[in-house]
Design goal:
The chain is α+β, with helices and mostly antiparallel strands. 28% of the residues lie in helices and 30% in strands. It is globular. The structure holds biotin (BTN).
Length: 263
């Protein structure tokens, strides 16, 4: 057993809500593995941690660069017992939690790019991928996958990434203990998730999310499936959808997509 695996197990075993810990030194994708464990009937709060991913997955079919030895790649499965309309905004909750955690460790302010990209110093430091599984009838489950660039040397990242991504180390010049980070991340996520489920939805966390949303009142261009929308961001609604005034002056809401600030 590597010392990372040993320390991960010890740190996560101390959290009583975590029911199962699966560690891999290398895996195709922690989301894919968590999904297959969920399909095989694994319990809620099954947590997967890997040191590296061979085919880390991002939103909109993109990939997530996942070299070994430096970063956090983790996924977990929950079964939110809330009305289904409130489930998608758990994606925003996850972004907000990661922002809070990274601020705690680095002392730098984090910004959110809707729905859940976390940026520091204007560059992407974390990505979150939520996937909804149907499970047995009436028992939907949610896979939450989180990647955080912790100690990576970003200048070694391929292509454009070396210009658009950052890591906690690149930002601060300090090396961070991934295990301490993982333990804190799960503790803070669990607290906010419990609160969110009790209070049914995004309005309960809106203030803290909006404080960090970088695109409010900005002109943006959104690619959402085959749709292209240009407008000015007005708000985020109770279900986590982005509310815009489009070029015709109409109010439109967007459930998912890639946002580019144009102004
Ligand atoms: C994005 O910003 O596009 C989302 C990136 C999500 C990456 C994480 S790393 C852990 C988990 N496993 C994956 O394959 N993806 C997520």
């Amino acid at each position: 057993m590597s010392s990372y695996e040993h320390d991960v197990r010890q740190a996560l075993q101390s959290l009583d809500f975590i029911k199962r810990i699966v560690y891999r030194s290398s895996v195709e994708s922690t989301n894919t593995l968590t999904e297959s464990l969920a399909r095989d009937g694994s319990e809620e709060w099954t947590v997967v941690v890997a040191d590296a991913q061979e085919r880390g997955r991002g939103r909109q079919g993109r990939s997530w660069h996942s070299p070994p030895g430096h970063n956090v790649y983790t996924s977990f499965m929950v079964k939110p017992a809330i009305p289904s309309d409130y489930v998608p905004a758990i994606s925003l909750l996850a972004g907000m939690v990661v922002a809070i955690v990274l601020e705690h460790f680095t002392g730098f302010a984090a910004e959110l790019k809707w729905p859940n990209d976390v940026l520091m110093g204007g560059k992407k430091i974390s990505g979150i991928l939520l996937e909804l599984g149907s499970g047995r009838p009436g028992s939907p489950y949610l896979i939450v996958g989180i990647g955080i660039n912790v100690n990576s040397d970003i200048t070694e990242y391929p292509g454009q990434l070396s210009a658009t991504a950052t890591s906690m180390k690149a930002l601060t010049g300090t090396t961070f203990d991934r295990v301490v980070l993982l333990n804190y991340l799960y503790r803070v996520f669990h607290e906010w998730y419990t609160y969110y489920c009790l209070h049914h939805g995004f309005m309960s966390i809106k203030k803290r999310y909006m404080q960090r949303l970088r695109m409010i009142h900005k002109r943006v261009h959104i690619e959402s499936g085959s749709e292209r929308i240009t407008g000015v961001v007005q708000d985020v609604d109770a279900f986590g959808r982005l509310v815009l005034h489009n070029e015709q002056g109409e109010t439109v809401t967007v459930k998912s997509g890639d946002v580019h600030i144009t102004q």
